[in-house]
Design a protein that fits this description.
- The longest helix has 28 residues.
- The chain has ten helices and no strands.
- By secondary structure, the chain is mainly alpha-helical.
């Protein structure tokens, strides 16, 4: 029933809950960038639902930090960094989950899953996804030397976790 029809019958109209207002600048950022953000997420995930979920999570994170982002320097650079981290982390979390299912059969998967998150990210991006150190640095928002550092430390941990496999590969 519409409000007009309800008024004629002597009943009161139903009050709709107020829509949560977003800052106008945030709405403009969303409208300007959501297509490009989704395109990036699709390139990483190659799955529409996963890409949409990642972009949604990124915009929630951007909104959560909105006042600090506005007060900071380059808004576009900062929001892109949040998107990049969110999309890549969602992909890596999914990958780690898939590896966890394999840990019963694979000492390599078990060893990878035991790495600290940054080392895990670097090893997966470098050796399983084929990314260069420059690309990984860009994705993770760190320097190339930091990527190299995490790679070295991850290799040491993997060698300690799988000494028999390391000896066989030499």
């Amino acid at each position: 029933m519409t409000d007009d029809a309800c008024a004629g019958q002597g009943c009161s109209p139903v009050a709709a809950p107020a829509v949560l207002p977003f800052p106008l600048e945030f709405e403009a950022l969303y409208l300007k960038n959501h297509v490009d953000y989704r395109r990036f997420a699709m390139a990483v995930h190659n799955d529409e639902q996963a890409a949409d979920d990642a972009v949604h999570r990124a915009f929630i994170e951007i909104l959560r930090h909105w006042p600090a982002l506005l007060a900071g320097g380059n808004l576009h650079q900062q929001t892109w960094a949040i998107l990049r981290r969110t999309v890549i982390s969602q992909k890596l979390i999914g990958y780690r989950g898939n590896l966890t299912e394999l840990t019963e059969d694979s000492d390599v998967a078990r060893a990878l899953c035991s790495l600290p998150s940054r080392q895990f990210d670097v090893m997966v991006l470098r050796y399983l996804c084929g990314c260069t150190a420059d690309d990984i640095a860009w994705y993770l928002g760190v320097t190339v030397s930091t990527v190299d550092y995490h790679t070295r430390n991850a290799k040491k941990r993997l060698a300690q976790a799988m000494p028999a496999r390391v000896r066989r590969s030499k």
